[in-house]
Write a structure and sequence with these properties.
β1 and β2 form a beta hairpin. Helix content is about 50%, strand content about 10%. It has a single domain, classed as Orthogonal Bundle (Jann2411-like fold). It is mainly alpha-helical. The strands form two sheets. It has a two-stranded antiparallel ribbon with strand order 1-2. It is elongated. The structure holds zinc ion.
């Protein structure tokens, strides 16, 4: 899924009664949040989606953060330099863990934002290369980064760029974790009223609705018996 800005994914809720809201997108529309949602906590039964270096490359390609040609080149390099590939997977998970802290608790905490900025700058600082924008297969423009040095080092650039966007704009205030305590998915709330609570209305939102319904029925039957 390409990175898109909030205006392209925002649902206009102005003239609808609250019960008639269309479901928000099943996941966040921000690259860095989608990346955070690949971890084992968010995936629950599926486990960590970044199980090996190849899975990391596949995820980056599928999400428009890496083009197929470069991915093929990096795969060849990874066969020749397995230790470097393994180190780069460890680094990707480290970046992801830092971004989860930012997504869950960054808003309102200058210290957490500063820590995230340090992590983002660590990644940006070690990667020399060329930035460009290209049209993705979906027709949307995407930023890309072609490293001039270590090919593995540039892999996290689109992710940290996306997180940096949330820090330099005021969007972090709209980033939150799903209200279902068992769900660890993070998302950006692009609704007008800013009251979105669940990562997905089809799953967590429906579960909450069903639980409210059961609680109401129970209260009613208790009253009837009493
Ligand atoms: Zn959820």
């Amino acid at each position: 899924m390409p990175v898109s800005n909030s205006s392209t994914r925002r649902v206009d809720v102005k003239d609808r009664p609250p019960s008639d809201l269309p479901s928000p997108p099943s996941t966040s529309s921000r690259l860095w949040l989608d990346f955070v949602n690949t971890d084992a906590a968010a995936q629950a039964t599926r486990g960590d989606l970044l199980r090996d270096f190849d899975a990391l490359l596949s995820w980056l390609t599928a999400n428009g953060a890496l083009d197929d040609e470069r991915a093929a080149g990096i795969r060849r390099r990874a066969l020749l330099q397995p230790a470097a590939a393994a180190a780069s997977l460890v680094d990707a998970r480290r970046v992801r863990a830092a971004l989860r802290v930012l997504a869950e608790r960054g808003h309102g905490s200058a210290r957490i934002c500063d820590d995230a900025a340090t992590e983002i700058n660590r990644v940006l600082g070690r990667s020399a290369g060329t930035r460009r924008i290209d049209r993705h297969a979906t027709g949307e423009f995407m930023r890309s980064f072609a490293p001039t040095g270590d090919a593995f080092a540039g892999l996290m650039i689109p992710l940290v760029d996306s997180a940096a966007d949330a820090l330099v704009t005021s969007e972090l205030a709209r980033v939150r974790r799903c209200a279902d305590a068992r769900c660890h998915r993070v998302f950006v709330d692009s609704t007008k009223n800013g009251l979105r609570r669940w990562c997905d209305m089809g799953t967590c939102g429906n579960r909450a609705k069903a639980a409210r319904h059961r609680a109401k029925q129970l209260a009613r039957s208790v009253r009837a018996r009493g």
